[in-house]
Amino acid sequence: MPATLLRAPFFFSMRALASFIMQGRLRAVTATTGLGVVGLLLPPLALVSSAAVGLVGLRAGWQQALIVAVIAAAVITGMVAVAGLPLPLGILTAVIQWAPMLLFAEILRRSSSWDWVLHIGMALGTGVVLLTYLLVPDLSGFWIRVLEQSVGQIFQQTGMPAAERELAFQQVASLMTGMVAAISVLSFVLALLLSRYWQALLYNPGGFGAEFKALRLSKAAAGLLVALLLLAWLAEVTLFFELALVLLVGFFLHGLAVLHAVNTLLGLSRFWLVGAYVVMALALPQMMIVLATVGMLDTVIDLRGRLDRSDSV
């Protein structure tokens, strides 16, 4: 009972927001625009804005989601103009936050397969990394300039010597392309997960969990991840590690699906999942590696299937 009471406010607020979005195009545009503007100041809420576009795409198709995204982008562009900020900000919001959601939502709507979503997401992420290396001549220098402009002043205020700051920026810059690509893939998939959760709340209660727990990436993807990590270690080429980071995100989500499936198979309390998410919030990099390893093991030896068969004996 206590767990149910704790979940009730969250459940009804999520359902109310999803219901509001689906009550007409005007409300969908209003929610997308409002959350998009707030997301410029509070980046986590940008995921909710993308999820609003994803929900429309999952339920009504990419054409309707595109209309919502275009109108919302026009409204944000107008607000940006009134505020005296650069006009491209509104267009960039639409392209960066909402355009990928049109693709991912349509893939999931047609296939009902998180496997397809993640495989295509990982392929796009690694493609972006490779394309960036081809198009940007001095990639490390580019990221160092970005870091200097964005956080350089903060480091100066801490009293860090210039030489140490430059060395730190050089180390981070060597991996920035892969990290940005990996974080982008993770963000879009998390937004799509929220979209699918909303859709299940409104139209298919209980369907979200079963679909997500069935997620399983291919052995080919697992083999590629291992190969990239070995090449990065043996050849000491950061590009291989950056590509591996994108695949690592996919297997992290695979491991998360395994975690939820095992919790259900063993009939454990939801508090175990809550505890796992608390640990994840406190030590995300370490938990990503642990869950990605679990995901890779499940791909190779079918952990869920073995556990299910042992319980049925």
Automatic annotation (TrEMBL):
Alphabetized UniProt keyword annotations: Membrane, Transmembrane, Transmembrane helix
Transmembrane segments: 34-58, 65-85, 116-136, 172-194, 214-234, 240-259, 271-297
Protein name, UniProt field: Predicted membrane protein
Organism: Ectothiorhodosinus mongolicus
Source species taxonomy: Bacteria, Pseudomonadati, Pseudomonadota, Gammaproteobacteria, Chromatiales
